[in-house]
Amino acid sequence: MENRKDKVPPVFEPVTSIPLTFINYSLGILFMLPILLLFASIFAFVYEGNIEAALSVSVFAFIIIVLFVVYIIGKRKKAYTTILINHNGIQYFNKFNGKLMKEIAWDNFVKGKENFNEAVGIKYDITTVLPRKAFYSYFNFEVLVGKEAIIQKEFFHGSHIFYLLYANRLKLIRAFLLGIKHFRPDLRVDPKAFRDHYINPESFEIDFKQRNLLVFFAFLVLIAILIGICYFV
Q: Which end of the chain has fewer CB within 10 Å, C or N?
């Protein structure tokens, strides 16, 4: 994106992530579903009188539960649950202990060496990548860590299973792009970053109608696929 100085960008305002609580906890329950199935199989074996199988599954379930608890406790201390984009940069907080886990200051962004858009033959400092079998893209940019430039992949979601998805992800992305415009106008942003997230590169307005329409049609396609599978099965 050409950073034109003759156009004043909208006022930059800090944005804090808002978790999609219902969906996040639903994903957490799905994550624990194998444990619930193990308990169901234990009761089934006991009901059938197969005590040896029930004991074997109980031991396996106990090990899985211990590993799960250790994982949750470890994530509770190390994961970040909240993203704040403000005048300092991008900050990652842990809600459980109130600590700042990581921070990327605007001054730490550097000119990219690897982000080359082969489609148009232009090198950008900030690009987006849509992985295969993924629902949304992530950002690629380089930041200075010590004296070394490190490639950063930013999905703009949390790293804890119960704080994974954000309801205002598009607003976080808008704040990120607007922050680049305000505080690092020397960096070049791939126009695809705006198109992929329904953001007007001039006004920085988010086209929620277009996003919602695409989500609606994607939902219809998914329902059609499920109906087709059920029909043929």
A: C
* CA–CA gap between residue 128 and residue 27 (Å, rounded): 26
Q: pLDDT truncated to tens, each residue of the chain (233 aa)?
A: 444 445 778 999 999 999 998 888 887 777 777 777 777 787 787 777 888 887 887 887 778 778 777 777 776 778 999 999 999 999 999 998 899 999 999 999 998 765 544 444 468 999 998 877 666 789 999 999 888 899 999 999 999 888 999 999 999 999 999 999 999 999 999 999 999 999 999 999 999 898 788 777 767 776 877 677 766 65
110 token code pair: 């550097």
Could you say which DSSP state residue 5 is in?
Answer: T
Locate 33 and state its tokens: 């579903």
Pairing state of beta strands 116-117 and 99-105? unpaired
Cβ(61)–Cβ(45) below 8 Å:
no
Integer-rounded Cα Rg, in Å, for the chain is 23
